[in-house]
Amino acid sequence: MFQVVLTPAAGKRLIARAVAAHPAVQVALRSGTIVIIAGTTNGFVAEEVLAQAGQAKEFSRRRFFRGITLPPHMPATETGRLPDETGFPGDVVIVKGEWRQGKTIFDVVDDLREGDIILKGANSLDLSQKRAAVLIGDRRAGTIGASLQAVAGRRVRLLLPVGLEKRISGNLDQLAAKLNAPGAHGARLLPVPGEVISEIEAVSILSGAAAELVAAGGVCGAEGSVWLAVSGRPEEEKLAGEIIASVAKEPPFTF
Q1: H helices then E strands: how many in the chain?
Q2: Interstrand relation of 33-36 and 92-95 (parallel, antiparallel or unpaired)
């Protein structure tokens, strides 16, 4: 067993590499449709998946998001978006290995079928239940509202890349009931069905080793960091250590 510290940015890169290596993503990249919905973690995911398709050079994650959580001194709209969204590239839609630039989930949701994949980031993570929830600013439930039509209606697979920094201790359904109640103010919350991929799952997907959250926090740029204890067979631990070392110095997200 060994311990390691991951910053949020390093965690995003680790998660992205695991998503790109996920067996279902590999199949859909060859023969189906993958929709990577814009978000800061999914910007890393898009880089990794597009790299496998040989089409990463034209992609930039600088404006690859809609809602975003910023420090109080930085301006944002009531729905958590930038006042100026110039440069938003749309979501990343990949059909049989080809990136259809400029498309969004809203353009393709009606065409998605079983075997296709939607990747959507999340804002709340219940580690004990391996469930995630999405903050809602849009009155029509935004991109997750559109996605669930395909997930529930046509068995499209939903993967939820989400960092451990977003872990919560409460029950997601109870929290959603509170935030969504008449008379409440602020964002709504929607727990969603899907496969969570955090740093913990990423370590397992990429190396076969098991990871456990044992501590968290930091300063001087390590705010939001997590301590993981990683264990497995010697060869698994060695591979996990090498993979984690390769992402450890990922610079913080900027736009």
Answers
A1: 8, 12
A2: antiparallel
pLDDT tens column, 234-248: 999 999 999 999 999
- The pair phi, psi for residue 161, each rounded to 5°, is -70, 120
Specify the amino acid at residue 107: D
How far apart are alpha carbons 192 and 157 in whole angstroms?
A: 12
Read off the DSSP letter of residue 224: T
Provide mean pLDDT across the span 164-173: 96
Q: Does CATH place domain 10-201 in 3.90.1570?
A: no
- Amino acid identity of residue 128, one-letter, is S
Indicate the pTM of the whole model.
0.95
Sheet holding 33-36, edge to edge: 98-99, 92-95, 33-36, 117-119, 157-161, 195-197
Contacts of 29 (CB under 8 A, 6+ apart): 49, 52, 53, 94, 97
What the block records as the tokens of 3 is 């311990």
